[in-house]
Structures are given as C-alpha cells and as structure tokens.
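Structure, all two chains, one model.
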Amino acid sequence: MPAQQIKFYQTGSLVVGNRLLDPDKRTVQADTHRPNALTSGHRACQGCGEALGARYAVDAAIRAAEGRMVVVNATGCLEVFSTPYPETSWQVAWIHSLFGNAPAVATGVAAALKAKGRTDVRVVGQGGDGGTVDIGFACLSGMFERNDDVLYICYDNQAYMNTGVQRSGATPPAARTMTTQAVGDEPGNPFGQGKNVPLIAMAHEIPYVATATVADLRDLEYKVRRAMEFRGARYLHVLVPCPLGWATASCDTIKVARLAKESGLFPVFEAESGEITSVSPIRRRVPVEEYLKIQGRYAHLFGDPPRTDVIAAIQAMADRNIRRFRLWTEVD
Amino acid sequence: MEKPFAITLETGSSLANKTGAWRTERPVYVTRTPPCSRNCPAGENVRGWLYHAESGDYETAWRTLMADNPFPAIMGRVCYHPCQTACNRGRLDEAVGINAVERFLGDEAIRRGWTVPVEAEPSGRRVLVVGAGPAGLSAAYHLTLLGHAVTVVDSAEAPGGMMRYGIPRYRLPRDVLDAEVGRIADMGVTFELGRTVTNLRDEMRGYDAVFLAVGAHVGRRAYIPAGDSARILDAIRVLRDTENEPPRLGRRVVVYGGGNTAMDAARTARRLGATDAVVVYRRTRDRMPAHDFEVEEALEEGVRMKWLSTIARADGEKIVIERMRLDETGFPQPTGEYEELAADTVVLALGQEPDLSLLDGLPGVELENGVVKVGENLMTGCPGVFAGGDIVPAELGGRTVTVAVGHGRTAARHIDAWLRDTEYRPAPPPPPATFDLLNTWYFSDAPARLRPRLDLARRVTTFDEVQGGLDEDTALFEARRCMSCGDCFECDNCYGVCPDNAIVKLGPGKRFAIDYDYCKGCGLCVAECPAGAIMMVPEQT
C-alpha cells in the first residue's frame, strides 16, 4: 500500500509534514532543505496545480536520484511559465525542445548518458496532457515500446490551458472548453471521446505505471520513489487542477483534486508490467455533483433546469471506475 | 564572461520576478480561541497543554496546565468538562477526552512528584483566604505564585471544602485530593484548620486583602408535614458525615431533589447498605439539573427514580408522594393522585445556601438573594475583600468545582493588581475557532478512547473509585485526537501546498513565515490549513 498505515500521529499520513513523526518518515516537501526544483518567481497562475504537482514530483525524483538527474520538458504551460528565456525557475539540469517530442528527446538523453557510461544520471521527461496525450503520443508510445530508461510524468489538467483552454484527448465529457462550448443539446465535450493514457501505458507492459493527484502528497512521493526504483520506461500520470481552465477558485485546487479522487472520477492506482498492484481506496465517498459544481467548466449542468441526465451519466462513469478499480468497499 | 556558442544572454533566475505584486489578498497566520478553553470555567489553555502532551512531553503539558489550575488530578475526576461539550471534534466523530488526559497528567505528576517552584519576589503583602475549598485553595495557590504570603482558614479539620465533604470518595479518592492540596501547602501556604471565622472584621486585621470563599453548605429545607418518627436528613450533611462517621440511613432511602447532590446522596446510600434508594423529583428527567452521566451511573447502580413526584407527607416508615404534571410553561402542577412509598430515611437534596453571618458588621458588603454582590473583579463592596465560589451569584459561572477554581484564579489576579495598585485587564480573547474554519480532511479517523469503569458489584458495596484512568498509550492517543483548532501545530501543510514556495519553514517550534515577495495570494495555504490558523486579509493598496 502506498499510504502506509502508521501509528496514530494526530494527522496520520494525510498532511505534508508532522512534527510527531521521525524526520526520516516525513515527506520531501516537509524538509526545510527540499530541492525546490521549481522555485519562486514563476509565472503560473494563482493556485496553479501544475506548478505544485511538478515541484512535488521533480523534488521527489531528485531525492531518489540523489541529485543526479536531467529533466526534459515538453512545450506547454509548465515550460512557458517557468522559463521565459533567459530566466528560469528550474533548479535542476533541464532541457526543452518541442511540444511533441519530449519523450523522444528524453530517449536521446538516456541513450547519450548510456553511451557515456553515466547510467547513474537518471532521466525524467515531463509535459502537460496536450503534449503527452495528443501531440507527443507517438514519441511516448515509442519510448514505452522500446522500454527506454525514462520516467515520463504527465501533468494532466485536462485541456490545452497554455493556449487558452482548448479541448485535448484528456478533456472529460461535458466539460466546457473554448472548442467545446456549453451550447446545444449536448453541451461541452462530447461523451465517448478521449483516451486513458495510464491504461494505454499499461498495455505496453512497461515496468511501472501509476496515477496520483496533487491532493495526496505522500502517495505522489511514494509513486515517484517507486518509479525510480525501476529501470526502463515508467509513466506517472498526475491530476493537476487548473483554476483558469476549470474555472475554480484558486484556493480550491487541492480540494477539487481530492474530490476527483473521492468521487471515483479519477482512479488512483499503480501497476507493474501491465498489472494493477494497488489502488488508493476512496476515503470519504462523495457524489460527482460535489466535484462538478465547484467548477465553472460544468456550470451549464447546474442551470435552471439542471442537466440531471448529464450529471447521472458522469456519475455512471464514476461508478464504473469504482467497480472496475475496486475503489470502494462497503464496510459493515 | 565567455558565453557558449549561440548564447547571447546570461541565464537568470525567476527569483528576479517578484510575483507578490499580483496579490490582492494576503494570507496571515492567526491564533483563534478554541472552543475548549473558551468554555473552560477555570480558564485553562487546553489546546496549549494538549500540544505538549501530543509529543509525550507530559511534564511541560502539566506545567502549562498548572499555570491556570492547580488541580489536574482532581479536575480530571470531578470536572463536568464543558470543554468536551464544546469540542469541535465532537462534530467530526467524538469530542477529545480532554478530561481523561488531564487526569492522566495530574496522576503522572503525583506519581513523579513534580512540584511548582515559587519564583516571584516576595511582595511583603499578606492575604487571608477564608475557606479551604476549591476557590480558596486555587486563590491561595495563585497568590503564592505571585509572591504574596497566604493564610487559609477553614472550620473543617481537613482542607478541600466540598471536594472532601461534598464529593463522595468513589468520584474523588482522598489520596488524590491530599496530594494536590498538599502540594499547595508545600509551596508555603499557611493553613489554620478547625477554626471557624465568625467575624471577618476582626479576623482581617493584619492582612492586606481577603479572599472569601466559604462555600454553600447549609442544606435548603422544604416544608414537609412529618410525623414525630419521620427521619429527615440533609443530603449535604449525609455526604459530610460519610467522610468520618457514616450515618445510618436504613434499608429504604428516599432522596428528594434532582441535582448532582441528590445523585451523590442516593449513590452513597446504596454504598452504605440501602437496598432501595429512590430519587423523588418533581419534574421530568430531561429537566433534572443533575448531569446526565450522574443519572446514568445512579441508575446503573440500582437507584430508582420517581419523576414528576413531590413528597406530600412523611411519617414513620413511609412517605406519601403526589404525582405531578407539567403545565404549558413547564412548571409542575399537582394532580391529586397519591402513592405511598416505604422509607426509613428521607434525604433532602434541594440545594445549598451559604452561611454569611461572618460578614456582619463589615462595611460596604452587600448581599443579594443570599449571596455576596461582587464586581467584575470579584471584589465586594468592602475594598480589599474579594469573594468567589458558591457565595457569589450563580451568573458568574454556576456552582461547580471548576467554576470555583476559576474564581480563585481570577480573584488572585485581581487581588494581586489591587495590592500593587494597578488594574488587571486581560487582553480580550481572539475570535473563536469555529468548526467551519477547520479542514478536517487531514485528521485521521480515530474514535475516542474510553476510561475503564469499576465492576458494578464493587460499585454498590464499596467507595472505590468508579472511573479509572487512561494508561500512557491511550492518553497519548487521546491527546493526539486534538485538532489544535485555531492554532498552528506545525503540520507543514502551508509549506507544502504553496505552488510558489512562498512559505518559509523556520524550524521546529518556530513555525512559518510568508515571503510576500512571491506569495500570489492564491489562498491554498488557508484552505488546506487543518487548524484554521491562517486567514486572508485584503491587501492595502
């Protein structure tokens, strides 16, 4: 289990730190001397989930790689807000190429390091859902298929946020984007489209695939640490809410990620060589309404009259996830 | 500097970009008043002492507690813990067992012999405390810590007041009482026991101030037509006598009244051998002033209850009770239906009143409804004479040990200020830490740990303590159930969740600071603070 059951420490394993825990059991983020791979002064929006998720993940990876690490970044928000030339927020060896070729560049970096005999230096590729799910997908699939020694992290905020919130292959049904407006009988993104890249990655039977959210730091850090224990292609898919694109309050970024998991809409699990090895069970189950109604991109579902049919269809997706991934067991 | 091929600019850091300029609101750390201490009549800093107990530093926890209340072991047994009634955790699962942890700390202190040093410079002032009950002893303790010389006078042979002569041993074992009172004596308080103060005006010569806390121990009487052979006693008398020479009550005992004293009297009667102890009360159970758990424990011990009943007559070995009904205003009205009940003794538990004859001739002191009028500083109309506990109006908190201890503490601070010719003005407490300000997601699911109870068989035959204490493991667990409402407990959430690294972690015990150069004012730290210890305030432009 990722969230190990520890003795009762007031807040257990749920908060970032905990003064009652032994220092070696605390998170990387709780450390006064954490790497801070993505430092202050970046131009991400207030409450950006991606900035947070990237620091969480890359800091954990740096710790696991003992500082010897190269990061390859796809174009997207993460690249644009962190590195407007010649300034950068990255405090790690970092290379940027194009929107669609980050996995291929990462493969190249890994190959070059191997050729130089520097297999102690680890490679992490990263990008948003646009660069991963759509534009860079062929490169990503190739990287998986060749089992190149790269951990690829996708920060999924469910649309092309950098260019103004256009739909991507990771945009969920009914969500309003600039290209899927909330008009007509079936407002927002159509049902029955898009793809689930974690499951596709599993189909490549690579050593390690996992999902996580910015709402559970301990779980996210565990998964990065675990991924770094493997050699070969690894994939981590992190849900990072976007206050701008989701039209949520900037203070609700973590809450909305938590509700995505607790409603069952975003299953959190890990898989090795194509088989699921653990899932994070739902702790306090909530109906999907609770998740949807705090997001402006679903506001059209809560008008007068509300689109109960659409909400029910989304609930059915959550229920299917819960069954499929065994996210919830009725107790007593 | 020589730049690499095709590079024209130096690499710069984004730290040059002060994103704090985007902000319209800023987060600030705040401390709010938690419901526990807000509701504590003794003014304890509950969250403060639990904080130390959480890390297993029981001595610091005890010392923090002792700053306000000298009787943790007693409180942990007899306090009705209004803190727990108010505890925010009660809305999540169950209230934190504050009272149980307090008792653990108190017992631990007795076991380890922890003492409180008197560090204040001697003031050269002498204070007379009349009454060695909870109010008087608490005042004596605090006055001593403030550097004054204190003499406590009490008419009883042993100190403790109602804690000894009103609260039965099965709720408060006397070795615990002796240990905590003894600690106050060891601090240098002079006790003059077995001496009744009959005239305060004469008695207070040679003292710079007086704290009057003689308590209320005259049982209130009701007129009951009674034959010559009827045996009618006061509950408070019965409880007092039980301490030295238990009274003979007979097998069938009727207790008249519905307060905690009535329950204590009935439960004491059971332990003294009554096979049938019946409480007669004129209203319904939900209107009984007795605390629910006292009623519950009395019922468990076989005490019977006759609600909606009054005693019409008592005669020989029986009494006649009349059924009552509540009218629209909730007042009991007679119905004219009567019932007979066998009774060897009738014990009246109708409340107590103070005997204030010692105040006769003291200028300025005013009485009202049988109690002493005092100002907000607990001073009577006579300068330098303060009063607290059961002899002041019940509006000042009610009549419990905890309220009395609180009066003693408050009075001591005002007496100190009066002696130093200043004024004691405590800062108003910060705004309350309400449940909606917390982010309870972060608290582990943890049901309350219960204290063990004595076997029922032994409860009705002995005066052994009914409620046991927690062992260290369970006390630690219980302390850690505290949600630290309204104050930082260094969970690092703010430090972690800031997407802009704008929170600076200052190290253990030093908490955090906010780097406003980079804080964009997103509010994530506020939303994800479990304790509600950060708030957003508008930025001044």
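Residues 220-351 of chain B form a domain with the FAD/NAD(P)-binding domain fold (CATH 3.50.50.60).
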